[in-house]
């Protein structure tokens, strides 16, 4: 698929109508900054020296230097929810740098829902890659470009996950939908998963297929995170699939969301595994 022209990065509100509908659909307004300290729901998983708590813990800076990256993980595992994080990505000339917000189980045949932000050389677009693993099987990558500069300010990135479908969002605009198609033999993520954040060296693959490496003269690279409340059902709750949790009742996009989703697919999608005949001569069953 062809790379989009630079002018497609401009964001036009008219391209994504009825934003208020999206907010009301999810039943709350996301504040500009996190209202709780990160350590209420998260802990440092690695790279302690490169984790900096800001604004009394309402914001966290993860950094990457040539010795280590850094990461956070939720204290609990979840089986459904609407998981949101406000993220400001590392600045220009971040080729090879990978920032992540994802959910993952910890079994050998793991489930995983990925939002991976792939840095780039200054003046070239940062790419958002999503992926879905179920029972250890991945290779479901999709890539989109942004309609804004994700390094200039914080933006909302979200994953809705329930027994019906998985939806990835950017600023409440749906960018990817993965339906539960176990009825035709497609594996679907169902294991308890932890919420994870990280910043690390992806030079081996992230930019230009690994041809463009990190320029360490620009280190340390810094990513910022806000919004550490978690709207999810932890595995300690025996009613995680019940309708008392609003996110469990969602089985499809609303018409306004569907329109915005189709706009993203038309104008910002640059890779979809379903159309990659070189890698997959026979498309996966969920692609039909």
From TrEMBL:
PTM comment for this protein?
Contains at least one intrachain disulfide bond essential for its enzymatic activity.
Broad enzyme group: transferase
Q: Major place of localization?
A: secreted
| Subcellular localization(s) per the UniProt record | Secreted, Cell wall; Secreted, Extracellular space, Apoplast
**Could you name the Gene Ontology cellular component terms for this entry?**
apoplast
Domain of life, per lineage: Eukaryota
Q: Which UniProt keywords apply?
A: Apoplast, Cell wall, Cell wall biogenesis/degradation, Disulfide bond, Glycosidase, Hydrolase, Secreted, Signal, Transferase
Q: Which CDD domains match?
A: GH16_XET (cd02176)
Catalytic positions are 112, 116
Q: Name one GO biological process term.
A: cell wall biogenesis
What PROSITE patterns does the record tag this protein with? GH16_2 (PS51762)
Q: Which Gene3D superfamilies match?
A: 2.60.120.200
Function per UniProt: Catalyzes xyloglucan endohydrolysis (XEH) and/or endotransglycosylation (XET). Cleaves and religates xyloglucan polymers, an essential constituent of the primary cell wall, and thereby participates in cell wall construction of growing tissues.
Q: What is this protein called?
A: Xyloglucan endotransglucosylase/hydrolase
């Amino acid at each position: 698929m062809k790379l989009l022209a630079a002018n497609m990065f401009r964001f036009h509100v008219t391209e994504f109508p009825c934003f208020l509908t999206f907010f009301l659909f999810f039943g709350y307004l996301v504040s500009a900054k996190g209202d709780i300290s990160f350590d209420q729901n998260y802990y440092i998983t690695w790279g302690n020296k490169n984790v900096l708590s800001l604004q009394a813990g309402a914001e966290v800076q993860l950094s990457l230097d040539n010795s280590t990256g850094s990461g956070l993980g939720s204290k609990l595992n979840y089986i459904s929810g609407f998981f949101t994080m406000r993220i400001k990505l590392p600045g220009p000339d971040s080729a090879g740098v990978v920032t992540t917000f994802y959910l993952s189980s910890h079994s050998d045949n793991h489930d995983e829902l990925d939002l991976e932000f792939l840095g780039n050389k200054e003046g070239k677009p940062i790419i958002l890659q999503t992926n879905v693993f179920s029972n250890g099987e991945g290779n479901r990558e999709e890539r989109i470009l942004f309609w804004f500069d994700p390094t200039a300010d914080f933006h909302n990135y979200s994953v809705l996950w329930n027994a019906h479908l998985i939806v990835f969002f950017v600023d409440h605009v749906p960018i990817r939908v993965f339906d539960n198609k176990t009825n035709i033999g497609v594996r679907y993520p169902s294991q308890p998963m932890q919420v994870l954040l990280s910043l690390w060296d992806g030079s081996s693959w992230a930019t230009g297929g690994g041809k463009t490496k990190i320029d360490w003269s620009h280190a340390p690279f810094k990513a910022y995170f806000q919004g550490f409340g978690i709207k999810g059902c932890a595995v300690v709750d025996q009613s995680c699939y019940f309708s008392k949790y609003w996110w469990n009742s969602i089985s499809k996009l609303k018409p306004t969301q569907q329109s915005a989703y189709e706009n993203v697919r038309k104008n910002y999608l640059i890779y979809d595994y379903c159309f990659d005949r070189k890698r997959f001569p026979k498309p996966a069953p969920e692609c039909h």
